[in-house]
Structures are given as C-alpha cells and as structure tokens.
Design a protein that fits this description.
0% strand, heme binding, mainly alpha, transport, 127 residues, Globin-like
C-alpha cells in the first residue's frame, strides 16, 4: 500500500471500506448478542456504515451529505448498547479487519478509533 494523508486513502479507499463492511455485517447478522439490536435486513445499515467509515477515516463526506451530522450517540440511543454488546461489536469488527487484509499500521489505527467510538456508544449496563 502506498502511504498517503488519510487512513481512507492508505487502505485503498472505498473498495477497502466496502470489503470491511461486508465482512463485518456477515458476522453481526449471526452474532447472538447483536442480532436483537440490528434489523433482519442489514442492507441499509451496511450502506450507512460504508458512508460513515468512509468519512470517519478521511474520505469524502458522504455520510454528512446523505444523513446530516453523524450525531452517533443520539442515533444509537434507541438501542440498548451494553458493555457486552460493545465487546461483541468490537469482536466482529476485529475479525472483519483481519479478513479484509488491511495492512498495519492501519488495521490497528482503525481498530483503536472504533474502540474509542464503541466505548462512547454504551448506554445500558449489562444485565
């Protein structure tokens, strides 16, 4: 991979994001801790995730153009996001990052940024 100014460019742009999101939602759709808070059809959820990750990692601002300001905490507030679900989400993302063959140091940088975001989304204690 060539070294460039953003993670988005460094990992290969939208093609890499698309591969990552596809690998991620394949896992989410089968994870017993996550299925209850995700729709049965993940098509639209994955589309929004592609837009968000593109923007989050320095690519075009497609998420904002399509959906407005991310307001991630507010958008996730209707869902019970527990520490257990956060960990399951991160487990799925880590496996998707590995499957997607995203090179270091970008894989670690992406996972660290998403880990911080995932911690911020927790809004319900484990039961």
């Amino acid at each position: 991979m060539r070294k460039t100014g953003t993670i988005y460019e460094a990992i290969g742009g939208f093609e890499a994001i698309d591969t990552l999101v596809t690998a991620f939602y394949k896992r989410v759709g089968n994870h017993p801790k996550l299925v209850p808070i995700f729709p049965a059809d993940l098509t639209e959820t994955a589309r929004k995730q592609r837009l968000f990750l593109t923007q989050f990692f320095g690519g075009p601002r497609w998420y904002t153009e399509d959906r407005g300001h991310p307001m991630m905490k507010r958008r996730h507030s209707p869902f019970e996001i527990t520490p257990e679900r956060r960990d399951a989400w991160l487990e799925c993302m880590n496996a998707a990052l590995i499957e997607s063959n995203i090179d270091e140091p970008y894989r670690t940088a992406i996972f660290e940024k998403l880990t911080m975001t995932a911690h911020h989304m927790v809004n319900t204690p484990d039961k």
